[in-house]
Amino acid sequence: MKFLRYGEPGEEKPGLLDKNGRVRDLSNKIKDLSGDVLSPSRLAALCQIDTESLPIVEGAIRYGPPVGDVGKIIAVGLNYADHASETGNPIPSEPVLFSKSITALSGPNDDVVLPKDSKKGDWEVELAIIVGEKAKYIQETDAGNYIAGFAVANDVSERAFQIERGGQWIKGKSFDSSCPLGPWLVTKEEVGDTQNLGIWLEINGKRFQNGNTRTMIFNVNYIMSYISCFMTLMPGDVIITGTPPGVGLGQNPPVFLKDGDKMRLGIEGLGEQSQSVISYPD
Fold it and tell me: Is 206 helix (H, G, I), strand (E, B) or coil?
């Protein structure tokens, strides 16, 4: 099942996508796609609803992030060997973790506003894990029991802030609108094999990233288990799992985002995003 949230920022309502691609409202069933609603058992029960009985949402629709009340965003860096190589980094022996601010979250088709004094804006299409159950010291073999589903994420970055300003990567990863998420939360049963999904990104119609999740160094279940050894994961937490090669920093010469650029990206079975890039207003 494909779950979603629609409406203006801060006023999103829960919904789902029916078999004919129409948005159906879930407001009379749940308050939001957050908290306990994200447990695999609760989502399984929602999947049994007769979708034809739900109201159709008419007119133009803005998709918000497909999960509400996100507590934290944890990211895995350099999780594709060929991406590590293009950025001049060694293949990590353990997952490289960093975080993005909650205020970075935005809808999948919202504008991306580059931060003030941005010089090296960049793109990264990523598979996102949506946590569904509280997870602490979990085993890799049990990790699937703690996952609500998956989504598309764009880990938009400001490389100068990330690399040249000292300290940790979070500086270049947390500006407002730097984590478009969605359009859907797709349940793991519908996704199937998360380690064999096509993943791609285009800038102004030119494809820069064209990979597959099978080339991830650390797989989804390992990532869940690994992170749970360092912090407690809560329902609604988002984990973005790394990007394949083709980022702007890895081009020769490097290519960075500028005002007016159009980003389009997607993952097989998880939908697409489309964003316009805007410079920070003077």
Answer: strand
Euclidean distance between CA atoms 262 and 276, whole angstroms? 5
Amino acid type, 184: W
- For residues 80 and 242, the answer to whether their CB atoms sit within 8 Å is yes
| pLDDT digits 0-9 by tens, 31-80 | 999 999 999 999 999 999 999 999 999 999 999 999 999 999 999 999 99
What per-residue confidence (pLDDT) applies to 225? 98
| Mean per-residue pLDDT of the chain | 96
**Residue closest to 95 by CA, chosen among 210, 228, 197:** 228
Same domain, 83 and 190: yes
Q: Is the pLDDT of residue 82 over 90?
A: no
Tokens matching residue 175: 């500006």
Range of the domain at 41: 2-53
Closest CA to 119 of 162, 158, 166: 158
Q: What's the pLDDT score for residue 85? A: 80
Number of domains in the chain: 2
Contact 132, 44 (CB under 8 A): no
> Quick check: is 58 in a domain?
no
Q: Is the dihedral of CA 210, 104, 220, 152 positive or negative?
A: negative
Q: Which CATH number goes with the domain that contains 213?
A: 3.90.850.10
Predicted pLDDT of residue 89: 83
Question: For residue 186, is it within any domain?
Answer: yes
Secondary structure (3-state) at 152 = strand
What is the C-alpha to C-alpha distance for residues 177 and 277, in angstroms, rounded to an integer? 10
How confident is the model over 132-157, as pLDDT tens digits? 999 999 999 999 999 999 999 999 99
Q: Fill in the DSSP letter of residue 259.
A: T
- The most distant pair of C-alpha atoms in the chain lies apart, rounded to whole Å, by 55
